[in-house]
Amino acid sequence: MSASSRAVAASQQSEREIGPDRRTPVSNDNAKVPMTEEENPFRRALQGLGVIEEYADQPPEPLTPLDLLQRLHSPPLNSNDWVFRGQNYPWHLRPSIERIIEPRRLRSVENTLLKEFMSRVHQYTRDPPNEDDELSCLALMQHHGAPTRLLDWSLSPFVAAFFAVERPPREDPPQPPVIWAVNRRRLVEDIQRVVRFEDPSVPPDQVAKAKELLRMMPPAPDPFQPLEITLLKRRSPSQRPVVVPAQPSRMSERLSVQQGVFLRVNPTGWLLEDALRYVLAKQGDASCRALHKLQVNPNGRLQLINELQRMNITAESLFPGLDGFARSLMTRAEILGAR
Fold first, then answer.
1. Residue pLDDT, tens place only, 162-206
2. What does the alpha-carbon distance between residue 278 and residue 280 come to, in Å, rounded to a whole number?
3. pLDDT of 330
4. In this structure, are strands 151-154 and 260-266 parallel, antiparallel, or unpaired?
5. 20 touches 204 (CB < 8 A)
6. Quick one: how far is CA 127 from the chain centroid?
């Protein structure tokens, strides 16, 4: 069965299993009990889905530097709808906390770390973020090396390309570096369908309340930051996952120059790649895919670095300060040694 067929079947199965009276299992005496992770139909639907690459538009061969730059300058990737992530190795799309904590403990561990961070951050900075601004708190934690469920992306495909090729290959023969691109507009449209209860797989028991809250909300000033996202915090972990593209209200200098964006999952407890697979499968339109995976020919790595330098995309420009300047000398040494 193809990935698209599995996606449709899994989606239909999930929609059949969720209805106004099927939010939780019911025992023989009709007493409702909490839904377990294993009983969650959204998680069961993942079993019928393919790996993340099956939902991505991917060239059959790694691209040369010039072919890559041409592709990034061309439709559809040259629009503002996309965010990009560069990786020097074909890792899974996993935030730092997912690499060290098992899925069932993600939420409790992150809450503990966040609470501890906010209780002590004032000892290290005179201007800590507001404790009610969770995204800014998590962004500051991530900036200084703490594990979080945020995954770094960029509005610039060329910044992502730099991070894909900055470091030398890890293996011999080298694995192709990877640039991922995801359509953030499609992610936001998916969020809006869920929050407005337009997705038939979402329990409709709160439709009237949700519509009233949405009616009272002012128009979103940024189409990629709809105010309806605030409603997601009201949803329980057993409900349908969404992938949220977001920028913190307080941007650090480094995040600003890197045109940084975060992807995170709501509700917590879902792995980002699992949630992204679910969202992509729900969309199911292979002719206009919301995910692209571009591999870079590792033999053209230094050539691509040179092309990016001509755009002033270097470690020195992306990491302001002495650390960034010193970091750029590593690449400079490689280029000089290759002549």
1. 999 999 987 889 999 999 999 999 998 888 777 766 666 655 554
2. 6
3. 93
4. antiparallel
5. yes
6. 28
CA–CA distance, 285 with 290 (Å, rounded to integer) = 9
Q: ∠ CA 83-85-87 to the nearest 5 degrees?
A: 170
Domain assignment present for residue 101? The answer is no
Q: What angle do CA 19, 21, 25 make, to 5 degrees?
A: 105
Alpha carbon separation from 115 to 95, 248, 317 (Å, rounded)? 19, 18, 33
Task: Locate 249 and state its tokens.
Answer: 């209200």
**pLDDT value at residue 11:** 46
Q: Considering the domain boundaries, does residue 180 fall inside one?
A: yes
d(CA 296, CA 303): 11
Within the chain, which residues score under 70 in pLDDT?
1-41, 196-238, 284-287
Q: Give me the helices (H) in the chain, please.
A: 3-17, 41-45, 65-72, 106-120, 134-143, 157-165, 184-195, 207-216, 253-257, 272-283, 301-310, 315-318, 322-338
Give me the pLDDT at residue 103, please: 85
Count of CA atoms in the C-beta half-sphere (13 A) of 176: 17
Q: Are 168 and 334 in contact (CB under 8 A)?
A: yes
Q: Which domain holds residue 267?
A: 3-95+150-338
Question: Which residue is listed with tokens 């939010």?
Answer: 23
Domain presence at residue 138: no
Is residue 283 assigned to a domain? yes
Alpha carbons within 13 A on the beta-carbon side of 63: 21
Helix (H, G, I), strand (E, B) or coil at 69: helix
Query: What is the tally of structural domains in the chain?
Result: 1
Work out the percent of the chain whose per-residue pLDDT is above 70.
74
